[in-house]
User: Fold this.
Amino acid sequence: MIYLEKMRKEAEIADAKEKEKQRKKKEACFANAEFVQKQIVEKEAQAAAKRAAQVQMSDTEKQFNKEKLERAMDPSRADGLQALLSKKRSEYRQMHSNRPKNVGLPC
Assistant:
């Protein structure tokens, strides 16, 4: 009887150790999953901030575009809006003069 009692206690101890081991393994797995999830969220936030920063123009670019727009809108300038319009008109005329007159569907 003493032998059976001793074996039962050893089995209970081994079972308790196994359950504790499984519990710790499960906790470690959850902790790792949380860590990975946090990393993903941080990386996505950094990527979003980076994309937003890339979309934003620097002050130099803003100034350059402002000056370019002012030049284009000045009707007295030779390289302004009038020059752009005449260039586009000539491109349009050239496109229409080069295209075939009768374009039909293939049979």
Observations:
- The chain has two domains: 1-56, 58-94.
- The chain has a mean pLDDT of 85.
- Residues 2-55 form the longest helix (54 residues).
